[in-house]
């Protein structure tokens, strides 16, 4: 509320300034926005915030297609007159994302050549840990080269593992998806266990942190959720796990399990290690759900079912959190405001002011403090195989509210823009 | 519309009859309802229809917990005064389901003993192929024993494979879930393919029929959906499949694949055969998504992601089809009306009157014509690896409309009733 009021006054003053300046024939500077890393169901709401705020402040706004990968090919889209309403309800990266890390000097050289040529003076990069590293390098290089450039990072990750911010845009919606899916699957299991499946396993994203897997327990606030949550923060003990499942089965007859893809043995080996590396040399993870179910089936003799929502959990815009969408948009707006206030080389953050009523304030942190860092689930957010009241207090406000996309033909009317040839 | 009008007149007459009868001190007969087989997100809407209609018609209505499994233990719940509103928005089997087939005579003997003792005169069994077989056997045995019993089947299956009905309650909602999930995952893939995942594979339920897998193509009506659909109806040809994927990749850079769990090689072997049998001696299926992704990765060298929604697709009430929910409820009501009209030993069916506007009429078919039959996807509903306009015409009305459950704490407020000890 307070933020909104502040924002409105701020806008009005700026718009007056712009009108004045335009009348005096002043040419405004160009801003560049791009998306990077694994996408979310609300990253486009941040794009909406950046673009709308930039336009309101008289900036010319370009969008780089596929993050720095497209920027290095000068693959831009002029968003000055783009109809951007669809960004508020379309999931995934409307402008394409990338996994590129600019590792070599020639990439950096090329980037600044393109920035100079296009007179880019603001750069808004929307991503997670790796992307903030890229943003930080670009800011540092600009200073080194004496090129006037203001870089502001817009946070984004379903993994919720960025430090120095209470939470990340994208997390609330993915957590809501996971919580609801686990409720529905557990109800299904409860219907079937008497003479069919007794154990259901859902494999959940989140890389090295258990924020998302923990969300599988949130349904208990309404009466049903995961009975066992296997977090990467708690080294996997097979015997203890199996005896826990056994105990639950003997008590209630069925057991719903959430397992984080990043689950590790005490020696650091991934439980999900598929036993081979991909073409880039990374160990392929996946199938931890089947590994866990296999243990339960072979050692306890119980019938199992396994779900792996994969991309569905990170792009499930149809059941996104309203709070998350609004915050994602606001993070985009704040990035523009900070840059205009000469607060750059930073990422937008959210600080929690209070839980009841839920209130946050926007702030910022130097990019280098975020780059390549991982925030794990705090120890007081879980206990044994379940989550604590502290986690409920933390997470419930983030999944609050629904903001359904418009529907047409019984399906969401998501919009696609042409991203050009690959 | 016409049906509704008919229904209203019918009700009024019946209610008058009941009031009259009650005043005369006539005791009404008992009806028993139970759920069976794999559950759906709308099976409880059918329960709502049966219970509400039975009560309106003065029947005493009992519910069997866990289908015939619970009935054989006399595990009943008196639904005469139960608050049933939650059945309209809570997924899975609110009263528990079962997979039991009554194979031996002692089960049948026991069943009729319990029916007699409780004076059950109407039996409404809500399930798929196997359950209709059970219902048929019970009806036949009743006649053989001279026990007055009216059995009516209420159709239910996400697989949509029951014959003699245009479609089955449960299918529309699961199809909607699949269609939306594939749209969202394909948008995600489209964001990432430039330097990350190029092929996404979603494994879809449906046993031997491709009705549900076909739904992964429906998103194209709004611009994005599955590029390749692997149906059980089309024997799997690995070389042809891989060259199709390769062609799509070279054209657009990414490829979203839907694969039915029941996909078979030309010799009839399941592509998903996991190589072992479960404790009941059934071959365990599963992981066909990983099998397909493995082929793409190893033979085409492309990075893949795999999703297996499993139970999520059949209990995803949060995004169920309004049309499906309304029809599920109506199928329940019609079962009661048919029984009261002395039309028994049948299953309720739906006939499509027209597509534009979409209109169905309710009818019935003898149970023995449904039992253990499977309706496959018609040949003119698919072509190569995609679905045809005819399939769109058929399926789009079934996924039409949204009927969101109520939310509390950011999550659906599904309700659970006590099902007793296991």
Account of the protein in words:
2 copies of one chain form a homodimer. Chain A has 422 residues and is of the alpha/beta class. In chain A, 37% of the residues lie in helices and 18% in strands. Chain A has 2 domains: 2-163 and 317-374 and 400-412, 3-Layer(aba) Sandwich (Rossmann fold); 171-314, 3-Layer(aba) Sandwich (Rossmann fold), CATH 3.40.50. Chain A has 12 helices and 15 strands. In chain A, the strands form 4 sheets. In chain A, strands 3-2-1-4-5-10-11 form a 7-stranded mixed beta sheet, sandwiched between helices. Chain A has a 4-stranded parallel beta sheet with strand order 7-8-6-9, with helices on both faces. A two-stranded antiparallel ribbon of chain A has the order 12-13. In chain A, helix 2 packs parallel to helix 11 (322-340). The two termini of chain A are 43 Å apart. At the A-B interface, helix 6, strand 9, helix 10, strand 14 and strand 15 of A face helix 6, strand 9, helix 10, strand 14 and strand 15 of B.
Topology overview:
Two copies of one chain form a homodimer.
Chain A: H1 2-23, E1 30-35, H2 43-56, E2 60-64, H3 67-71, E3 76-78, H4 105-117, E4 120-127, H5 129-145, E5 150-155, H6 171-192, E6 199-204, H7 211-214, E7 228-230, H8 238-252, E8 255-260, H9 288-300, E9 304-307, H10 311-314, H11 322-340, E10 346-355, E11 358-366, E12 382-383, E13 386-387, H12 389-395, E14 407-408, E15 411-412
Parallel strand pairs in A: 1-2, 1-4, 4-5, 5-10, 6-8, 6-9, 7-8
Antiparallel strand pairs in A: 2-3, 10-11, 12-13, 14-15
Helix pairs in contact in A: 2-11, 8-9
């Amino acid at each position: 509320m307070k933020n909104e009021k502040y924002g409105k006054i701020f806008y009005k003053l700026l718009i007056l300034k712009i009108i004045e300046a335009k009348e005096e024939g002043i040419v405004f500077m160009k801003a560049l926005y791009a998306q990077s890393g694994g996408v979310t169901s609300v990253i486009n709401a941040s794009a909406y915030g950046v673009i709308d705020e930039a336009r309101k402040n008289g900036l010319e706004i370009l969008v780089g297609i596929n993050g720095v990968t497209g920027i290095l090919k000068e693959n831009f889209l002029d968003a000055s007159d783009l109809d951007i309403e669809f960004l508020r309800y379309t999931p995934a990266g409307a402008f394409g994302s990338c996994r590129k890390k600019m590792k070599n000097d020639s990439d950096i050289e090329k980037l600044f050549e393109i920035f100079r040529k296009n007179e880019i003076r603001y750069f808004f990069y929307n991503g997670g840990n790796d992307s903030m590293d890229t943003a930080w390098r670009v800011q540092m290089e600009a200073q080194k080269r004496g090129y006037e450039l203001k870089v502001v990072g817009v946070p984004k990750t379903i993994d919720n593992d960025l430090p120095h911010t209470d939470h990340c845009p994208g997390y609330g919606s993915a957590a809501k998806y996971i919580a609801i899916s686990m409720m529905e699957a557990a109800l299904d299991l409860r219907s079937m266990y008497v003479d069919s499946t007794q154990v259901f396993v859902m494999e959940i994203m989140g890389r090295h942190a258990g924020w998302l897997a923990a969300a599988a327990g949130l349904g208990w606030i309404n009466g049903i959720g995961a009975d066992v949550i296997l977090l990467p923060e708690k080294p996997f003990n097979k015997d203890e796990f199996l005896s826990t499942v056994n105990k639950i089965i003997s008590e209630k007859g069925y057991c719903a399990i959430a397992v984080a893809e990043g689950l590790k043995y005490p020696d650091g080996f991934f439980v999900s290690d598929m036993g081979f590396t991909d073409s880039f040399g990374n160990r392929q993870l996946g199938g931890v759900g089947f590994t866990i179910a296999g243990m339960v089936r072979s050692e306890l003799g119980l019938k199992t079912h396994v779900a792996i929502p994969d991309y569905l959990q990170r792009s499930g815009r149809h059941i996104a959190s309203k709070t998350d969408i609004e915050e994602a948009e606001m993070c985009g707006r704040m990035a523009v405001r900070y840059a205009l206030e000469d607060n750059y080389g930073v990422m937008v953050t959210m600080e929690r002011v209070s839980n009841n009523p839920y209130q946050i304030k926007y702030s910022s942190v130097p990019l280098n403090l975020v780059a390549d860092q991982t925030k794990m689930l705090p120890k007081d957010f879980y206990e044994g195989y379940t989550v604590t009241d502290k986690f409920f207090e933390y997470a419930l406000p983030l999944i609050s509210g629904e903001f359904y996309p418009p529907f047409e033909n019984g399906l969401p009317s998501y919009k696609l823009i042409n991203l050009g040839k690959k």
